[in-house]
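call fold(seq) -> tokens
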Amino acid sequence: MPRIVKAFRRPPTGRLRDRIGSFPRLSDGVAHACRCDASLQRTLLAENLGKPSLWVIISAPWYNMGASGAASMTTILAMDCAAGACSAAVARDGRVLARRHEPMARGHAEALMPMVEEVLGRAGASYAALDLLAVTVGPGGFTGVRIGLAAARGIALAGAIPLLGVNTLETLAHGVPKPERGGRCVVAVLDSRRADLYVQSFAGDLAPLDQPAAVMPEDLEAMLPQGPLVFVGDGGARAIAAIAAIDDGRAMLSTAPAAPDAGTLAILAGARHAGFKARGEEWPAAEPLYLRPPDATIAAGGGRLRP
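ret:
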């Protein structure tokens, strides 16, 4: 974490600005004057420096300021339990530092937070060091989506950490190795555990070609892109089987994980977050993406017992 040397309510100017160079240079780096980002705001509060300051002089070996005044290092915690696995990962500047991915049909609620603690420890990170949280928001299992979102929202609220939600099918597509995408469109498919499939198609460069949809297998062919295809996801084999009668050999199943991987999610979220910041845009709130209503419904009369 950066070491706080001095805090200001306003940008240093005049003689104060000139004196910045006279501040003692610390053993772990050179002092800088910079505008606070969320991570530094949290650090200031943790250091009991009173009300949040807008500008600080800091020193840290890894905290190098670019021309824009933004930090060059971003630490991301990503988590997924929307499909047939539970996954957590920590990444920094486009590199995954630690990940854990365990296939499971149930038990996500018990597995997720110990997994988060494990990857944070292996990455040498802490909740206070996080700059961004990422979570898959669906489509997927109703319970898994809610578990992941609840955990991510809780961590985000407790630490005032930005939270970015990412489509589960897009996370799957970004896990397909580049050689498999050459000359092919990517079709991400999740088995809904009902009659339908959750499907979304992407170009070879992973630009979305349509929106996520719940599709019956017999209707799948009509919505698929033309040309060679690579399918990914735990519904991929079922989708290929559904079009086998009319398939001319243009479909293949990816070697990528059949469930979203948090390492892929962390890299994707980091790039998306940087794009939002560069354009000066606010990113949308992380909300669940459901493609059909839940199977459980409230009983007539609100579930109250009849007299």
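Residues 1-37, 40-72 have pLDDT under 50 and may be disordered.
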